[in-house]
């Protein structure tokens, strides 16, 4: 892309200044429209050292109300950050609806830097590119405007600027070893940047190459032109339904809920206690091993109200060293969560390598409660199956074991348990009007769950149905599935 | 992608056969729905040699009415095909609305083959990938369903199959040098395929990796599953508006038509003849040079009715060797053209390297007559600006010089010329009721033309306005622009 870049014609000074003024004003007005339309806007500045990213950013933001934008900068990841998926720290600061985040620089610097330092081989590089593209598409499809700039300048001009900065005692500090290295090995870097740009140049998040080698005002004008154009386009697109993607993941066929037999799925107490002890012991041992090997584990619980999620989770955590796991109870999203991509609050909660995260209700709320209560559009939840499969696929490729449980009971069992809860003063808090309302929607939920399991039971993150009329049975089955999955992964990764 | 591929679980024989039968039947029914919905379907089969692509294809098509599908196979490109953009021959057989085309194999074999043979360097490879992705997205956005399969099998299994084929005199011919080579250098090929797959694995045209190493029936079932799923998804998406993309191309600002001064833009006959002679001579010489250097040239003419396109074109072709140019008069599309992507009939007409194609009216009909007459949806023409920029960008990168003319006259001049035509028995055929109807829509056309020029005058394919109240002036200006553009390109490519 860089070699074929054809810059636009720079207008004469007078025309340039007039257009700049006009577009700065427009950007200020655009900000109000963005807020009204609840459009989140990500603006990414990458490019050559000494290309003037910071200076231009300073000019561009001066007409935006500071309450509506954030500037986010990234250095090399810390050791702690490296224990999470590469992409996580870049996602933590995605803008809320109606606001801007300016990223200076963004992921390119880390990715290409890792290639140069030999931290990322070809496979790892490709996987990273895939992950970036998938996530940017998901952000776009869920309503985010992404604008990505690459500030381009030639080798000679870069050298001239570096020398000028070095000559002045006040600006000397702005030149670092990386800038010098870039200029020395310009063509190697150019190749690397070019590949990165072309592989992340997606229709939903295209790169705009900006001529940053002429003068600052011209660079600024180009940036203003593309930002304001893109905002117009995004506002025009706002509210359009996004096409559902074809499934490309290998799926595992599971029975429909109505076909799941609950009869005979029970364990009497003696057997239960024996099995519990055995599997809990095993799980404790396995936790040590996965911790040592840095394998992250994600366990998601979904199921009917009163199916016994809490008790089931408790039997799992009893076996675990508390320093190595976290249980995340998932309730309705808070405003800061509701104003971002629906997976954002879960991305925050991804475990570190070697840790276990247990989710009491999960991101599948998108295709259950949010679907049935109309908290998102039909198009939103229909798209979510694939978005979730992609999210889990990338977690799996990162190394995570993903286990998903559906706790199944029949409607009569639920009724019995609801009534028992109401009768027990210690358990009355566990039963609310909402539970009764959800119960009225049993058949709608059943349909949604069947569709969810059909479309998201992938070979890498299958659903497991836990027959839970007898809680003993369900608890032992959960422990069995977890221990088997961990053993399987440990055996695999030993090769 | 190949290394991380996790196959789905193969069902037991009985379940497998039942599902296969059911899905074959569904595919037959789907064909009727596809025809009714006018959905074009492209199915691509690529993969390892001896993976059974042909056999599985034979099974899959047997339940589709043969009038509704085509099978298209590709060998290495001929010398003539190499004189066109790489992608052209793959596009000539895209399906009509309501029909299938099965491509076995498709572009992967040529691209990876060229990399292996050293015909494609890193830059060329990236450019090719970009072109493929851009075109597949444009096909998708304009309503095509793309399903791409990669038939995957391990090295040992491939070897076993090759040996089995070789042992039998009847099947020996099916093993070629390429298959043997692939097996010998399996891991090198795997790397190459993997990169290709991951870089062309787009949300609008994803790759499905199929486990082709177990048995044919299972491979067939996987293919049937993904085809039928994808058709369901595509039918569900049918008719959704597609988001407009952000502009990422450097634009050249041009005046609005109303700001173009026509006064004084004239040449008296003596001057005209002198200039004509000079530029025609120059153009003739330049044609020889661009022909020798293999530079393709595309000249598009648009303009008001009676602005003088025909006469202008004639002054250009007078200077040219007829073996090196073609004039394409563009009328309303024929049914076979109307049933495909709107750029298809122009892709057919791209000149060979070294040739000149002159279009009397162009693909810009999409954003003028098709827009104003409602021949396409609002979303269709709004999307077209970017699609056309991408189309021209790829032609430019391939090496084409692109020159676009708008012949500008005022409404009074048009009226005068219409009346003169009606009065002249030799020219009456040139004026029709449609011309008068178009004239009534002058201000709507003016708005459309202004928008077109604003959004598609790119740095690599700018619009040139030819003031044509005086035809002498317009003809000389056209020749001047063409000769300058060719000289410029020749000078550039001499470096």
How would the blueprint of this fold be written?
Two copies of one chain form a homodimer.
Chain A: H1 13-37, E1 41-47, H2 53-61, E2 69-72, H3 79-82, H4 88-91, E3 100-103, H5 107-116, H6 122-141, E4 145-152, H7 155-167, H8 177-184, H9 186-199, E5 207-211, H10 216-237, H11 269-293, E6 297-303, H12 309-317, E7 325-329, H13 335-338, H14 344-347, E8 356-360, H15 369-372, H16 378-398, E9 401-408, H17 411-423, H18 433-440, H19 442-456, E10 463-467, H20 471-494
Parallel strand pairs in A: 1-3, 1-4, 2-3, 4-5, 6-8, 6-9, 7-8, 9-10
Helix pairs in contact in A: 1-10, 2-10, 6-16, 11-20, 12-20
Structure, briefly:
Chain A has two domains: 225 residues, P-loop containing nucleotide triphosphate hydrolases (Rossmann fold, 3-Layer(aba) Sandwich), CATH 3.40.50; 238 residues, Rossmann fold, CATH 3.40.50.
Q: Which terms would index this structure?
A:
homodimer, 495 residues, alpha/beta, Rossmann fold, 2 domains, 5-stranded parallel sheet, 10 strands, elongated
Number of domains of chain A: 2
Write down the CATH topology of the largest domain in chain A: Rossmann fold
Instruction: Please give the oligomerization state of what you see.
Output: homodimer
What radius of gyration of chain A results from the CA coordinates?
26 Å
Under CATH at level 1, the class of the largest domain in chain A stands as: Alpha Beta
Query: If helices are DSSP runs of H or I spanning 4 or more residues, what is the number of helices of chain A?
Result: 20
Poorly predicted segments of chain A: none
Distance between the termini of chain A: 40 Å
Shape of chain A: elongated
Strand line-up in the sheet with most strands of chain A: 2-3-1-4-5
According to CATH, the homologous superfamily of the largest domain in chain A is P-loop containing nucleotide triphosphate hydrolases
